[in-house]
Amino acid sequence: xxxxxxxxxxxxxxxxxxxxxxxxxxxxxxxxxxxxxxxxxxxxxxxxxxxxxxxxxxxxxxxxxxxxxxxxxxxxxxxxxxxxxxxxxxxxxxxxxxxxxxxxxxxxxxxxxxxxxxxxxxxxxxxxxxxxxxxxxxxxxxxxxxxxxxxxxxxxxxxxxxxxx
Length: 165
Description:
165 residues, mainly alpha
């Protein structure tokens, strides 16, 4: 069994990785809701709320600060941009009709796959290929966020005691 050593992230990329932790918590919450037969409308409302408050700013920061540091022809950049486009489309479908179990599962799977790709491939590439001065510039432009989407949400459907709502 192979073990993975933790990746030492530069300060510029560490904040993006921190956001990914919370994105994976969203994936888990969606899956908990689906597993426990929570109405897809409830799960969908939270997914949209979380996307608007947390993921959208994260995606925009990646697009404006990270992706522009590598060539438009780079395959990793192309994949990341295509993933973003796909996830934007999925959340708009959820927003339009609050989702179905299949749509929510697709969103969760796509988001998890995207996060894993960025953590394992894209961020490593960026960290190895952006000069230190470029990483310092990115770090200076980052705005640290509080990740308040969960705090501001009154329907924690993923918790056991709230499954009957």
